[in-house]
Amino acid sequence: MAGIAARVNIFKTSEGHFMENVKIPLSGNPKIDFILRQYKALPGNGGNTYTWSLAKSAYTNPTPSAEFGTKYIPIPADNPYNDLIRKSLNNLSTFANIKFKEVDESKNEMGDLRFMASNELSFRAGGISTGINGVNTLVFKIDPPNGVTTPPSFYISAHEIAHAMGLNHTQIMVNGQWQEFSNLTDVTMLDTLMSYNQIRNSLHYPQEKTALYNSKGVYLGEAQTVSYGILDIQALQYIYGKNYAFNADNTTYKYTPEKLNFFDTIWDGGGNDTLDFSAFNLGSIINLEGGTRSSIYVEVPKLAPSKSYLNSISYDGTNAIGIAYGANIENVNGTQGNDIIYGNELNNLIKGNNGNDTIYGGKGNDTLYSGAGNDTLYGGEGKDIIYGGSGIKTLKGGDGNDVFYIGKDSINYLYGGNGDDKYVIGAANASYEIFEEKKGGSSDTIEFLGSIQTNTTYYLPANVENFRANTLLSSNNARATVIGNELNNSINGSVYANDIIIGGKGNDTLQGFKGSDTYIFNKGDGQDVIWEYNNDTLGKGDTDTLILNDINADQLWFSRVKGFAGDSDNLVISILNSSDKITIHHWFESTQNTAFSNGKLESINTADGKSLNISQVDDLVGLMQGKLAPTAGHTSIIDDYLSQHFGAIL
Questions:
Q1: Is residue 551 domain-resident?
Q2: What's the domain range around 32?
Q3: Whole-prediction pTM value?
Q4: What confidence score (pLDDT) does residue 9 get?
Q5: I want to staple 355 with a disulfide (CB 3.0 to 4.6 A). Which of 92, 202, 338, 416 is the partner?
Q6: Among the three residues 175, 193, 211, which one is the final residue of a domain in this structure?
């Protein structure tokens, strides 16, 4: 196909300028070093703008070549190479820090690069890059030699231009035959246009499918590359620098199945960018890492049984889209099929859409959407936000403080991993099971944003510390029962409903908010703190209760202690002969219009049938104030007080 490139040191243009080649060292990267010719071409007029021209006159080689012909002619106006040359130069300038300007030879202007053609049978290459009269000249075959078709292609035009700009083949010539370097046998045209290795059936891409057929099995040609390859981009950027101005804003690269019949490689200069494959239905394998290729599957024509063998080589989108090294693409909008998507080290936004998807966020603070289907999402490192969607979901946060949002009509298996994780439950018909592998060292939270109409019981899973009911209940008649675990829990009940809150073991912080809430405490439950809503702002029907399940009244000791501000506004109920106690914050603070000031419980009920109201508790605090709590496990103060003032022990 493409031919040799001349190795000359100086090309002279008709304007009297010199296109000088400056020697450059190898990069140290073994793959691109094998396609570097170790020179940088300088434009005749200086700067970073190279001129180019289409030849207007023919040239006859005084020393005819048996392989590359004798006479070179102007490229006919209707030949595809006119467009392919422009596409190749434009593509090169998008990623390398160079520009190309067309000049007109009919105005006595000859470019640093000059393009011609050959239609001789003796011209046996698809193209060559050579020197003619001191000018860097690229010659393309425009007629098939010996009946063998070499159709014009982006590959040929871009290949020869890359020769002129300093790239070499990945092979060496030995006894007139091209031989690959031993460590580059797995490199194909898909990696670098400087390779002669066909894409299909290569060592690197053994599964590649490139043949294009119509529905009748008629061969339409091969899927072509429409851009320089990943290694070409890296090598030419090493020589000329990177073009960070290209697509420097937020860019969306949208592909459709009707038009995807090629291989493309993306370079992007900056911004927050998105790959959009949402129009596809057959799934994908997508990788946002630079230097990788993604497969976006398209439908293969349904061929007749007699031609079904062609399906194994028919183009199906495998490895269709590549991302150049250093091209930072942040986001992916996946297909409607089964996707496997890999993020990169950036803060990715990845949408799986429909289908059974597997998504890996990788490093960075990622936002992952599963969509509908049975999906598995991995947040990876960083502070990730993971949205479940409908279907059966396995959601894994990994390291970092992650947030999980549970979708409606779903079954969810949630793995927080390391970090302070939050599980937001807000959708109807959703079940969940949480697996927090580590105890302590983090603080994990379940938060409800939805609503229910019936009584519901919630248990804090192992190794999850916190529960937030928020506006969980939409009916004042519904009741939520929240039961903590052995950790130091923080449990917030619903804002308006009548909650039952059981902290369980550990030193818990409990908040019922509005509504008639019930707190249940058992012996050995630790040192709990209760925050109740301001009694001055609630109606008479709001009655809050503390139930001491296995604790009698004579085991209680009441005291008034200092709060956060240093005021003695907290009520502490100590269980004698134990370390257990309950602190009710701001019991004695009378500041109005503050949510948790004057936060009293209307009833404290003990196991022996006694019930103490607010005024009785205040009296008992006064009776016990200044006294030392008895070392024995009981006291007669409460029974004596009730008998004296109420005529009976209630």
A1: yes
A2: 2-193
A3: 0.88
A4: 32
A5: 338
A6: 193
